[in-house]
Amino acid sequence: MSLQFLNRSNRVKALDFHPEEPWIIVALHTGTVSIWNYESQTLVKSYNVSNTPTRAVKFITKKSWFIVGCDDKHIHVYNYQTDELVTKFLAHQDYIRCIVVHPTLPIVLSCADDRTIKSWDWSQLDNESQWKNLKVYEGHSHYIMQIAINPENVNVFASASLDGTVKVWTLESSVAQYTLKGHRNGVNTVEFSSNGMHLASGSDDRTIKVWDYETKTCIQTLKGHSNNVTAVAFQSGLARILSGSEDGTVCSWDSNTGKLQSTVKYGLGRVWAINTLKGSDDRAFGFDEGTVVVRGLEQNEENTASRL
């Protein structure tokens, strides 16, 4: 395991790997979005997107775009080759928390503090600037913090809410298929395993729960954080779950046994975001004070972190 990249900055709220270039895109609480080359340790480009916090960012590489969700309630779309602002439109009635890009269809899902999830067709415009809104998904009773698409059944997605639940939906229906209940406090984050058979959710109750997608039951509760769990991810190709917390630590768990494998504190404050590169061991973490990219299989991560 090697620390590939460390950049100190203002609070990082979201990040995303480019699937082909050695780039990580970082959305800051200041409203700035930056693209970094984590191999050369250089800034590729930086954009002043909004005068409000940016909380969501994703690449749409087939269009050379990145998309940003902000507290200004707008979705902003940029071409990272030309630096053009492609479009900007009012998407929600409150802060946008998360954006996900459908892997095969020209669809983006967004969720917000207005308690709705919306699907957008980025190949069609309703007017001169707004993407066509396909559907509004309602059912949560508090802020919706994150959404995740099932990689093995891309018609299905899950949502995490501060109402304490995870809901599972299909693209076609505005009503949830079912609701997963078990956390004692709000749920901040949800992610599917690469085979689509499990979900992991992280909560203000300081636990991570692993759910069986078929049986709709909680099969593991992972305890080890001392503050709110803000981010979870399944590491690509490995039986490993990564979690980040406001306690400032990143934990690695064996997803088969639920055993805590390592705890790393990078000294950059609270953890707000985790992203993994598909088909790779690379992972990125966003903190109060910067971004870390780690490459390779972990071996004694605690020793590595202590040397930072």
UniProtKB/TrEMBL annotation:
Coiled coil region boundaries = none
The residues bearing each WD repeat, given as ranges, are 5-46, 89-121, 137-179, 180-221, 222-263
Sorted alphabetically, which InterPro entries does this protein's record hold?
Coatomer_complex_subunit (IPR050844), WD40/YVTN_repeat-like_dom_sf (IPR015943), WD40_PAC1 (IPR020472), WD40_repeat_CS (IPR019775), WD40_repeat_dom_sf (IPR036322), WD40_rpt (IPR001680)
Q: Name one GO cellular component term.
A: COPI vesicle coat
Arranged from A to Z, the UniProt key words for this protein are: Repeat, WD repeat
Q: Which Pfam families match?
A: WD40
Please indicate which superkingdom the organism of origin belongs to: Eukaryota
Tell me a GO biological process for this protein: retrograde vesicle-mediated transport, Golgi to endoplasmic reticulum
**SUPFAM superfamilies tied to this protein:** WD40 repeat-like
Give a short account of what the protein does.
The coatomer is a cytosolic protein complex that binds to dilysine motifs and reversibly associates with Golgi non-clathrin-coated vesicles, which further mediate biosynthetic protein transport from the ER, via the Golgi up to the trans Golgi network. Coatomer complex is required for budding from Golgi membranes, and is essential for the retrograde Golgi-to-ER transport of dilysine-tagged proteins.
Name the UniProt record assigns to this protein: Beta'-coat protein
Say which species the protein is native to.
Rhizoclosmatium globosum
Per the UniProt record, the lineage of the source organism begins with: Eukaryota, Fungi, Fungi incertae sedis, Chytridiomycota, Chytridiomycota incertae sedis
